[in-house]
Structures are given as C-alpha cells and as structure tokens.
Amino acid sequence: MRIIAPMMILIMMTSTLAGCTGGDPDGESSDEIDWDAINELIDSNIQDFYNNTTLTDGADGQDGADGQDGADGQDGADGQDGTDGQDGADGQNGTNGQDGADGQNGTNGIFSSTICELVPWGYCVNANLDGLDLSNMDLTGINLRGSSLVNTNLNGATLDFAVMRQVYALNANLQDASFNRTDLSNANLQGANIANSWFSAADLSWTYQWTTNMTGATFHNADMTRSGLSQVNAEGADFSLAKIDYVRWFGNFNNTIFVNTHLISSQLGGDFQNSNFWGAHLSESVCDYYYVCNFSHSIFYNANFYKFNFGSANLNDTNFNGADFSFASFNNAHFISENGTLLTDFSNSYWFQTSWLDGTLCDDVPPSWTIPSDYTCA
Could you read off the pLDDT of 231-266 as tens digits, one per residue? Predict the structure, then answer.
C-alpha cells in the first residue's frame, strides 16, 4: 500500500494543476505548465505525506459459500493383510443324519493265484478252494489255515508239513494223499474220503469226522486228542503209537491196528473185531458209546485196562495175555460165542479189585471162570 500512495498523490496534484492551466476553449494559447515547479513541490511535501498518511486495511469480508466437492480421486493400492484372528470355539455337534440305504451286494469272489499260492510252502490262508481239482499236486508246507475245501479233489496230493488248521473239508477227496507232520487241528473232515492216506506225526486234535472214510489210512504217532469220530469207517487203518486221549469214537474199526496206542479216558463204541491192541493204553476208558464194543477175535497182549469199563462188550475169543485189569469192570461183558464156546485168554494177566461178572471184586483170575455156568471169583 505504501508504494501505491505516492502515485495517487501525484495523480491528484496533476489533475488539479491541469484544471488550473487548461487551454482556452476558444483556442487561445495559455501559459505552459511549469513541471519543474511541480516536481519541486512533490519532493518538498512527499515526506510529510508519508508521515501523515496511514492506509488501514478494512475488515475481512464474510467467507463465501463452500464450492462444490471435486470428483473422487483414484483408489490407492490395497494395504497388506493383517494377521489371522484367534479361532472361535467349536460349535455343538449336530444330530446324526439318517442312515443311507444299503449298497448293492458285490459279485462273488473268484479264485486268484495272486492271493493263493498253490505251490510248495505257498501262502493260501482263508481261501475258497471249493470244488477245485488239486489232485497229485505237490503242496508241501503250504499254509491253508481256515480255507474251505468243500468237494475239493486232493487225491494223491502231497501236503506234508502243511498248515491246515481249521480247514472246512466237507466231502473233500483226500484219499491216497500225504499229510505227514501236517497240522489239521480243529479241521472239519465230515464226509471226507481220506482212505489210504498218510498222517504220520500229524496233528488231528479236536478234528470232527462224521461218516468219514478212513479205511487203510495210517496215523503213526499222530495226535488225535479230543477228536470226534462218528459213524466212521476206519477198517484196516493203522493207529500205532497214536495219542487218542479224551475222544468219543464209534464206527467200524474192524481189523484195525492200535499197537502201543493211547486211548486214555475215552468213550468207545463199534466194531473192533480182529484188531491188534498189543501194548495199548486204555485206562479209564468206557465202552458202549452209542454201540456195544465188539472186541471178539482181537489181541490185547500186555494192554493196560486200569479202571476200564467193558460195559456190554463182546470179548469172545479175545487174547488178554499179560493185560492189566486192576480196578477194571467186566460186569455186563459177554465171553461166550454163539455156539457156546468160551475161548477168551487171560493168561498172565494182572487182577486187582477187578469187578467180575457177578459184581465180586477179584484180585486174581477167577479159578473156574472157564465153566460157562460159573461166574464168580470165589
């Protein structure tokens, strides 16, 4: 404002002087302007003008109304994600949904050699081998535990040292086969044909054999403890040195070999005619299991009958030479043949508290027992 003030003063003074020195309107000349005098006047009075002249700013006027907002600027880049917050507590389990419908049954399985190795020392556990023809195969040492052999043909096969525990061999053909030292414990051999097969030192404990064909089979040193044989045909079989304790056997054992066999605490019944029980141990066993024991024409040389109960056994023409009858019972036994002959041999046998036909207890062979009408120890 101080820079503009002198200019305003100069203009005012010039205007005044111009009015005073203006030309004649009629065109007559006038005196010239004395510019030197004017400049001198300004110079002499300018300082007083500065000193006495004050320019004061007026009060600010009222702010005008805000202008319209401008357009939004472009969005900036997204900031970095923050860290995840803590998981909330699990919600309460909902109720179980309704069970879906059962799926369709799958197709029957098919035998596959990839899961059943039908080779020596192969692995074939719990396999279904029903109806297969495995005749004459060498299956030494194979593991067939729990497998099904219903109607399977193993005729002439070699299964020595095999594991056949709990096999189900209903009506299987096992004849002329070899099962030496094989584990057949708890096997079901119902209706199976094991004729002329070999079971030397095999484990047949707890086996079940009903109507099984055992004719001519060999069971040397086999373990048949607690086995069950019902209506079997074992004619001509060989059970020498076998362990057949705690069994229930009845069937056809005609012409069978039980040399040095253990038949302890067992129940026996059936046809044992013409059989060889040389040195057999039959202590605490009982006859008449389903059928009367027919021991006629059999040999019991040096056999052990300790506490044996003969029941209603047929003992006609039986050789008991050297047998031990201590505490045995003959109460209902039959010695006389159909033609009235009595040929039973008790030579060198041992008697102690042995119950004779009339119920008396004998410590020796009855003195007159060979007379059919005399049935007393006295």
Answer: 999 999 999 999 999 999 999 999 999 999 999 999
Most confidently predicted of 90-99, 159-168, 309-318: 159-168
**Is the separation of the CB atoms in 211 and 188 below 8 Å?**
no
- Alpha carbon separation from 104 to 99, 101, 212, 262 (Å, rounded): 15, 9, 40, 54
Place of tokens 């086999």: 222
CA distance 345 to 334: 13
Pairing of strands 293-294, 267-271: parallel
Tokens at 269, concatenated: 């019944």
Q: What are phi and psi of 293, to 5 degrees?
A: -80, 120
Q: How far is CA 334 from CA 167, 280, 289, 293, 294, in A?
A: 42, 21, 17, 10, 10
Q: Report whether 14 contacts 34 (CB < 8 A).
A: no
Alpha carbons 196 and 184: distance in angstroms, whole number? 17
Maximum CA extent, the chain: 213
Stretch 275-284: mean pLDDT: 98
Its pTM stands at 0.68
Instruction: Outline where DSSP puts E strands in 150-245.
Output: 208-210, 228-233
- Is the Cβ–Cβ distance between 150 and 172 less than 8 Å? yes
Q: What pLDDT does residue 74 have?
A: 75
